């Protein structure tokens, strides 16, 4: 049980700061990529928690990408097992669909690619103490499912974080991001930096330098809370290369 299952969607996927902090806490990382043919476990008895990361595909691609349909069905099993579940970007959108809500593009085709502010709701102050800027890379957003609680809001995409019960959380943004990951993403997908709403490559790095320490501090506390630990006792060392 001292391992966390990480579901990724590309050969170059990296769990970044999330993986770093989980390893610092003593968890082994079991990383699987269904898009490349990896199997998802039928039982979660050997896993303490599950994180589903982002990817360039859509949560609505289940009719054209079999692994998306597989993940949607599998997430239902995770929720039934009441294991801590964290969905990041695509992972949050998959969770949204499993819970019966919709995932859609912005009506003005705006993207969030770079650092943008989020603000905690009244219900979200337990998890987000103050507004902060976080890293995004998406063109779709999620509705808040029936029975879920909105935790943080944004300007272009109103819904930025939610929880469902005590175990499942969805984040529209990428708290796992590091400078190395920004370098890779802005190089491989440089064309997307020209899309409406996207920030320049230079802005990505400048804003990361400014905002990453705050996000790292928040992430260490959030993961502790998510895993049922005492977040006030966390002394995780930041990743200096972030």
Automatic annotation (TrEMBL):
Pfam families: GATase
Keywords noted in UniProt: Glutamine amidotransferase
PROSITE patterns: GATASE_TYPE_1
Keyword Glycoprotein: no
Domain (Glutamine amidotransferase) ranges: 44-179
Tagged with keyword Cell division: no
The protein's name in its UniProt record: Glutamine amidotransferase
Native source organism of the sequence: Almyronema epifaneia S1
Classification lineage: Bacteria, Bacillati, Cyanobacteriota, Cyanophyceae, Nodosilineales
